[in-house]
Amino acid sequence: MVEWYIGKRTRASYAKESTYGTACDAGNYSWMGVVQTVSPSSKSDIIQVNAMDDSDTRNVSDYFETLRHYSFSVEFLVQHARPLYFAWGSDILSSNDHTITGTNTLPSFTFQVGYSGSTNHVMTYTGCVINKLDIECTKNEFMKCTAEVVAQNSTTTDTFKDYQNSNVVMKKYPSVGTGSEYILPYHYSNSNININGTDYCEVDTIKMSINNNLLSEPTLCSETGKEKRIAEPIPQLREYDASATVRMSTAEFYDMWETGTYITDPVITFERSSNDKIVFTLEDAVLESAISPFNIGEGMVLVELPFKVKSIGIVETNDLSVQYDETEV
Predict the structure, then answer these.
(1) What is the pLDDT of residues 158-184, one digit of tens each?
(2) Residue 171 near residue 179 (C-beta atoms within 8 A)
(3) Which pTM value belongs to this model?
(4) 127-158: b or e for each residue (b if 16 or more CB lie within 10 Å)?
């Protein structure tokens, strides 16, 4: 009987690189979260080369590959904020609190994804940097992230690199064991949103995003074996966005938008317990709109509140005792 590759037997892991574009050694890999989908998007830039020769044909003379682009998106449920650190850039651990902030440079990582089988099919991406990361949580769902990643190179093999064993608390869900080895993703039922100093419980959807606007282009002086590849991506203007879909009972949001000024920093909290939570602060937030359509056939009236924010600060409290910017996590 033929053993076909199936989606459920997909395996994905990642590890922080010490040097950009250099694959991490086995024993450093961990889980990015509860990964649901990985969508590679790799292509070549190919140009025509035509010559005045004796071929006597209207056909193209030759094709030449000038550059290879490697990228992928990965969708996962969020167990802890370590993957978010790669989009923001800095993690400071004090006691049990992780403070994650944006930096002018970004860390890179190696990403492995493939199918298990009698012969594994494994793709290893090196020089991975997060260009854009979307965070979303909808009613009755887990918090979900979609990361758009730019990579420098990719190779294929039939061998998965070993997971790290130094921090068993970072295991996948569900993991072998109980207690601290068991990390449930953040869930809608754990969440709370505070806008302009008021808590709102009637929220259907919360969304946040960070866009690093990476410049990913080739340069001269390519390393041997990395010709026709991009150089290390350069983070450009960083942009943050957020939105919430809220049940409407008064015109307070419209009034808030009409003032046209900064509002008290909205705070979005996912709290599994008082010592196990993540807090997002939308710093210097301005409402972009607060209009809901008037529809006679509509049931509960919802209003979407899109925010423009200067930055989104993250503070996560847990007892993992792991510095997120370490290589072996």
Answers:
(1) 999 988 877 766 665 555 445 555 688
(2) no
(3) 0.90
(4) bbbbbbbbbbbeeeebbbbbbbbbbbbbeeee
